[in-house]
Amino acid sequence: xxxIALPKGRLGEQVYDMLERCGYGCPAxxxxxxxxxxEGERARYFWVKPSDVAIYVERGAAxxxxxxxxxxxxxxxxxxxxxxxxxxxxRMAVAGKxxxxxxxxxxxxxxxxxxxxxxxxxxxxxxxxxxxKLNGSIELAPIxxxxxxxxxxxxxxxxxxxxxxxxxxxxxxxxxxxIANKVSYKFKHDETEQLAAAVSGLLAxx
Length: 206
Fold this sequence. Notes:
The protein is 32% helix and 31% strand. It has eight helices and eleven strands. The protein is elongated and about 60 Å long.
């Protein structure tokens, strides 16, 4: 039995479908239920907040998990990154009002929940910034004058456009990754490698 942390939402459902096709199905997971833990013959699954998956894996509550590369870069959890799943694709971007013009005479006000990624991005450009840490509705910040720009994940850009914002610069492209707890990888090495190989084979077949 291998414990797998799945992110709640569309990404988790998409990845579970992949795992089911690889022979790691758990019929109970399809039932209408508020349960968070589901046991199959080969794996036990549990749903967690996407940003918490890496914590569950790093701390050993899960053997493996699925997490966006953005989370790995932002928080640097002490885990093994086993596989790029090629799903959950998006990009980290700088966005702002369509008429935005940078004023280099003062620090750039940047609203984001990805403070590490944002700071590293602007450090490479030797641009002084004032980080404003927000956890939601980040698009509001430049609209209400709280910030000059935002640094956030962008999939289609539709939300930005509907709020009069646009992508000014793409920082990085991301996708979901299969990660493993370092201790579990040692003691459940065969099970973990079998899982990774099964998923890798599925991806290769398209």
